[in-house]
Amino acid sequence: MVPARSTGSSGALDIARRLTEICGPRFARFAGPADEVAGRPARWVAVPGSADAAARVLQLAARHDLAVVPRGAGTKIDWGAPPERLDIMLDTGRLAGIGHRPPDQRTAEVGAGTPLRAVQATLERTGQRLAVDAPSPGATVGGVLAADEAGPLRHRHGTACDQLVSLRYLAADGQLTEVDGGAAGLTQARLLCGSEGALGVLVSATLRVQAMPASRVWVTRPVWTPLEVHDLIRAVLAARLEPAAIELDLPAGGKDRPQWDPRTAAMARHPSMTGRSPASPGGAGSLVVLLEGGPSDVAERSERLVSLLGARTTVARSAPAWWRSYPFAPGDTALRLEVPITDLHAAVYALRDAAGSPIPVRGSAGLGVVHAALPGVLPPDRVAAILAAVRSVLLARQGRCVVLSAPPAVRRAVDLWGELVGLARLRAVKQHLDPAHRLAPGRLPGGL
Questions:
Q1: Closest among 367, 356, 342, 345 to 389, alpha carbons compared
Q2: N or C: which end of the chain has fewer CB within 10 A?
Q3: Would you list the DSSP string of 94-136?
Q4: What is the model's pLDDT at position 258?
Q5: Taking 90 as the threshold, does the pLDDT of residue 174 lie above it?
Q6: pLDDT tens, 281-330?
Q7: CA atoms within 13 A on the CB side of 166
Q8: CA torsion 14→33→149→138, rounded to 10°?
Q9: Residue 16 to residues 48, 52, 88, 304: CA-CA distances in angstroms?
Q10: pLDDT value at position 9?
Q11: Residue 77 and residue 36: Cα distance in Å, rounded?
């Protein structure tokens, strides 16, 4: 059969008609200006209402050699490389819902198109939660899994992919596969985590749930330099306080530590200042430790932590405004740095040196996973030079720097991934699950 994308308007109308037959008249259409992936426009949008309908969309695509990219809420649709081609945008918004399970099972089956916040709101009514706090507002569970996105709670609980019990997904040919139980099944399921829809279309996931903690406090210490952060994190981890999260926010406007006069320093050390923040010049960053558990246990651990971090430490019952958010804005070049925590300060210094000024950095400093933002106005060759300098430092420290998103000119000019580890295995998995390269072709590292 001649591929539909090489036919004229009659072929395009026929595909639209068939998609309408599968999904319903209100849930299939020609793509509009907003229906694109990292700048690559789609031709049609299909919103199937069931796993069977989604399978039929994939089978139609296979018959006509059409490329398909799944989309959840679209919160990270500009992350990663653009697909080499994009014919059908498969919107998972109707593959939603939360299965009813007894609370004592400690699991929840969730449709891939279900917004994460809806899942949390439902579980909260029974005193439970997913230990998943992805920063993207409105993200769906499928989108969080497909991007392997995680927030502050990854420090103690890992990513959403680490909490999988089972997974249902559609292969490129439309075959529904369910994997669960045992290490082998979960290893197969986790292959789809971070795959950006290029290995399968997620239908639903069963995730572990836990009881809501009775008490939560955020312990904040102002910081001025990456080396100071390094020393503080080592101290916190050595104290065995079982933090739920250790997050860092270093704004671009950060200044060197202020030199306080002796009287001000003495006042800051006075017992009456414990848990309070003395006045200090602006520009400081923040190291924040989240403690969760029973009220008395959290109170005891927070007292120990305040004593460890010093008089400028504060304790609050609510998160800081920047908590669970990225430091970059639309149009920035968004970076993710991953490095052993012992070398996080070296990575941040390398980024500052390469950029010529402080760059906003935020993320899970207790794990060595942080995000940074380069201004979108930087020319592509300048961004490429910064990336090369930072990656050369990280290479010797078993770290990496990945470009999550960037302006089109930068995306075309730079290496998004850096050194690729395990590319041969990824290529083999892609060949096994999607031999015709119809699912999000080119979205994975190495152009897979």
A1: 356
A2: N
A3: TS--B----GGG-EEEEETTSBHHHHHHHHHTTTEE-S---SS
A4: 41
A5: yes
A6: 346 899 999 999 999 999 999 999 999 999 899 999 999 999 999 999 98
A7: 13
A8: -100
A9: 13, 18, 10, 63
A10: 67
A11: 8
* Residue at 335: amino acid letter: L
Using the structure block, give the residue that is written with the tokens 């916040």: 117
CA 174-177-179 angle, 5° bins: 160
pTM, 2 dp: 0.88
- Per the CB < 8 A criterion, the answer to whether 92 and 142 are in contact is yes
Going along 329-368, which residue ranges are E strands? 333-338, 361-364
Sign of CA dihedral 17, 443, 416, 146: positive
Rounded Cα gap, residues 358 and 273, in angstroms: 31
How many distinct helices (H) and strands (E) make up the chain? 13, 20
What pairing do the DSSP bridges indicate for beta strands 44-46 and 107-111? unpaired
Residue 21 is given by DSSP the state H
Nearest to 406 by CA among 39, 16, 20: 39
Which pLDDT score is estimated for 104? Answer: 74
